[in-house]
């Protein structure tokens, strides 16, 4: 049950969201993945955008609840990194502009560890006024 | 008050902690920075390791409380990303092995925005048994 | 100040919400109680439904703030069990379908411990799509 | 992906922890399960007791991290119900005396939903003085 | 159920902890009260110091759990104001030096609203190094 | 880096919000300050009212993000004291009526500690029905 050095799913997802050229590394592993953008003051819209992208790009099977459940918790964990305290945006008068990358693969050497999913977020958070913002990052990882 | 494209302090700090070769980009900007490692079940030791590195490497002036205060909150925010819910380690029976990068610089185009500090964390979190762990990431940013 | 074995208000409220046949046990103790259902993505509507049922069924006296205050905190505590981290529903894109039971009685052997109120919740939580959900439970107890 | 009426894993786990006679219902389904007790002011000891029981009774395979990971998050979610706000015991001067039940089975009608794990907690929480306590309940559910 | 203008228990408790000369106003109302000091990195010691003072000065009856329960939640709420996010001190490498005031009285005009308890905290929070700290305040109010 | 006895910015801001006659003490120090009122079930409106007052009264320069950022975090910290657990109002069916005071000055003896900002809140929190409420207090302090 050790993480394989070349298969660090969290690091790969974070590099991918920071710089799209890293997509090729994820692709070489034969892993499922997708990326997208969302900007909103409504935290539910951020969750919805990531879920929709994952389903549309078949990174998860939206017909199977256990896949949706795994992804949902990975998203919520990534949002903790972005929001740092309360998973709230508009209700505390702030907005985000985020890129996201979703990666699904086998990061462990042992085949019985199976598949895991990583959600990486990068962008800005701040007041609903252009420029009044700083960067934010989040990563959520779950077994799927 | 716009973030300058080449001076994205959060992205630079995260790339730096993920891959030490990015140190040169931070150095070219003439920004203060340092990096280090800490592994512990005690969350206070993680905070202490980062604070000590920042002071020892003169990224902050430990004699000035406002600098310590700015760094402390950046560390706490980064720990939110790593712990995703409760800023606790051993008290909820988990441990971390983290690399950290601290970067201090001027990410905004306007000089009046002054200096900001970013704390980036990358490593693993999990049960206190080798291998029972997955990756975790956190980023905290504050004005200093 | 010991809990009386036959008067475990939390256990009774939980059994009552899981299986309405347990209502008789609560009734035999001569305790005030009511039950109801609420399904919503809006957490405030869940709170309102429970408060309204408690007042309408005279489990609490809505004219006395200390009773409303006691109930409110019991509801919030029960919601912690259901939401497990952030007391949020629609804002994090999830919905609940809950049954609730409210019980008011004297669970302690000593008469000076007076009345306490228990709010038990049982149902499902999940995505706003039928079937994409799992069960959730919460219990809040307060002196009244 | 609907929950099967006779296989409500959360309800079964909660009834099991409230009244051991419900063990037979879990057994009839052919599901893995175990029960145990733990009393402590140290939250990490509560986590450890539940994890140890699950491994010792082979409800999970302790050699496979994804199983430990699934269980860990189910425990943490159940502790949210018990602690209602901060997953802390001794550090906020309170202690628990808990029974726990762990159940692993297939609650959904569709076979592709696979196995899920439920952790149910029931007992008392209060000051570290006998009698200064009330009941508490928690339930955590995760895919495994 | 209106708060009586001259009996604002929260305001009185806060003024009392900020300036001991306000003790006379509390005394004139015939209300129970006490004050004290506590400095610690251990959050449980802060809770214990306040509970002990309340019992020793007979602001609450330590033999009755409902009074301990009411006080405990008022303390925890006051600590939220002091800690602002995680009710943790030493585990996140910070310490407090606090004065506290506990006031018990009838703040509402209607006699059926009965007694309430307020816990006011004032002092400093910061790194475990003298001077690396700023002020912090908290107030908790509960029915008793 | 010691707090100067006559320049306790948190205490001054709290006294100021509790009793407007304390405004003169803040004025004598030559510090920037303002006060205002806000009542709402929407937490974002509370944040907006405080930010708007600070900008309109030139306590902060709304054109400089670092000042907005410092104020925002001070407001959020003050709201933790008022909300005591979840920074939510209407979504958990409660409302506030608050006075606020914002003070900006140099509370430390050493000039290199520079300016700090304090946000003090005092008022009531409760159900959206007149009278069903108790007092609440919050204080947030940040370097600016």
From TrEMBL, chains A, B, C, D, E, F:
Source superkingdom? Bacteria
Entry keyword annotation includes ATP-binding: no
Q: Name one GO biological process term.
A: positive regulation of gene expression
Q: Which UniProt keywords apply?
A: Activator, Histidine metabolism, RNA-binding, Transcription, Transcription regulation
Q: Which InterPro entries match?
A: Regulatory_HutP, Regulatory_HutP_bacillales, Regulatory_HutP_sf
What GO MF terms are annotated?
mRNA binding
Name of a matching Pfam family: HutP
Q: How does it assemble?
A: Homohexamer.
The job of this chain, per UniProt, is described as: Antiterminator that binds to cis-acting regulatory sequences on the mRNA in the presence of histidine, thereby suppressing transcription termination and activating the hut operon for histidine utilization.
Family recorded in the similarity comment: Belongs to the HutP family.
What's the name of the protein? Answer: Hut operon positive regulatory protein
Question: Could you tell me which species this protein originates from?
Answer: Fictibacillus marinisediminis
Its gene name is: hutP
């Amino acid at each position: 049950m050790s993480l394989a050095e070349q298969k660090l799913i969290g690091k790969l997802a974070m590099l991918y969201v920071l710089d799209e050229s890293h997509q090729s590394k994820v692709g070489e592993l034969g892993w499922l993945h997708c990326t997208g953008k969302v900007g909103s003051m409504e935290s539910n819209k951020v969750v919805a955008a990531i879920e929709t992208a994952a389903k549309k790009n078949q990174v998860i099977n939206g017909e199977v609840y256990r896949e949706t459940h795994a992804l949902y918790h990975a998203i919520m964990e990534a949002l903790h990194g972005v929001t740092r305290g309360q998973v709230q945006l508009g209700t505390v008068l702030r907005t985000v502009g985020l890129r996201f990358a979703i990666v699904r693969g086998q990061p462990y050497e042992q085949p019985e560890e199976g598949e895991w999913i990583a959600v990486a977020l990068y962008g800005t958070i701040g007041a609903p006024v252009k420029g009044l913002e700083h960067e934010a990052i989040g990563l959520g990882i779950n077994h799927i």
